[in-house]
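User: I'm preparing a small set of examples for a lab meeting where we compare how different chains pack in three dimensions. I only have the primary sequence for this one, and I'd like the structure in token form so I can line it up with the others. Please keep the answer compact; I'll paste it straight into my notes.
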Amino acid sequence: MSLLDRTRSPDLSGSASAWAASPAGFRGFFHLREAERSPFAGASGILYTLPDAVAVPADEADVATLVGWAADTCTPLVPRGAGTGMPGGNVGRGVLVDLVPGFRRISPVDPAARRARVQSGITLGNLNRACADYGLHFPVDPSSAERATLGGMLANNSAGAHSVRHGAVRAWTEALDVVLADGTPATVQRGQPPKHPRLRAILAEVDRALVPARDRILAEWPRVRKNSSGYALREYLQSGDAVDLLVGSEGTLALIVGAELRLAPVPACRGLALLEFTTLEAAGAAVDTLLPLQPSTCEILDRTFLDLVRDAGVDPGYPLRPGLEAILLVEREGESADEVEGALQRVAAAAAGLAHRISLATKPEQQARFWRVRHAASPLIAARTDGRVSMQFIEDGVVPVSRLPDYILALRRTLARHHTPAVIFGHAGDGNLHVNPLVDVHTAGWRSTVERILYEITDVVAQLGGTMAGEHGDGRLRAPLLEAVWGAEMVAHFRAVKTAWDPAGILNPGVILPLPGQQPLDAIRTFAPGI
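Assistant: Understood. Below is the structure token output for the 531-residue chain.
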């Protein structure tokens, strides 16, 4: 069974004795030996770590039993969903906690309230299929929708191509069912004071640490449209809701086992504009101009992306002419074809004089052809046979939208200086770029090169007023970089939050906040061609 196959329970044949030594009262599976043979252990993006054991709780009560035991024995716990996370937030030493097999229930959808209550192991695809008969969906749409679990999306404050209009997961979360670091089950509801005394005590401690610094925190918070780095101090200080603090906390404050989510109507019609640019400055200016028109997507394909597709000689679904610096894919939603047509015409008018060429698509087949260029690169990267491996170690930087051209130029210069080609694309409307450096693993010292690029780009992002994680979280990869981006004072506030929720430090240690001596690439996989 692959790491991403969550449709079956683990095959325990021949290993019953290995799963027998579990905490008292734990009814699920607990594998103490041969963890490397478990389908739940191992890789996350470019990082790889074997846990000391794997636990598969049967239900929320089982999670409470497990966490209580871990608190008593000071045993680290590493929560894991489908394993689609990129920066290593779901791998580590200690006991890996699989929160999928026992957590696959969706309560009946409430179409009138546009709400759904789900458990952490439900995938986004399953949720949307359950909502389809009501004309509803969960509008946050990471590309891994058929594999990504809601628990993982909540842990990372995930976003996606439509976040420029709909925002990230936090904005759509009304309540969370969690297990606190001492094993206490609790529910936090947006807009309501916490009911459990343990939860009230935690938040009182958080407030004692943060409220005196409120003005300074809000003044110094990065001016980016979305963020999944650090803890959401700004959102918590503005709302007072524990929901805001827990979403995006990557399992370091509590284990999320369920949630109540708001839903949105499925758009009746969509249309797409494809805008071509011969300068990055014009592309950046166009993004600023288009945002007031409330596009549902505003995706950028950088020259590096376009060159890869063009040079491969594949049909991208759209003629890629030489000399382009970038393409923007701008989608508009509406209730009728006429409404969408009018919205696309306004996009074209706003981009006139900035874009070198503008093409509009209102029919589904036309839109599919335009989107084909966006989906053409991934198979080409995977099929490379030149010894270069795609390593997403700078894959989630986010900067203020106005600084996006500066960020792209800095990426190109840094990568060229280190003789490392890359493919750059992402969510231009949010200033969030995904970068796929293609690393030659045959070259001596390639790991040192990767590390130098990582630190140099971190400095660039900090100087531009951004963070290194727009929608994927810090994980273990970016935790050691936190202070370089946020500064020592803000990181001290993060630590105060962590201490209030998890004083023993058993929940996902080394994620978001680094352990002493932790380095970004400590757990980097051993790459070889074809792997």
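A couple of notes for your slides: Confidence is low (pLDDT under 50) at residues 1-20. The longest strand covers residues 269-277.

User: Perfect, thanks.
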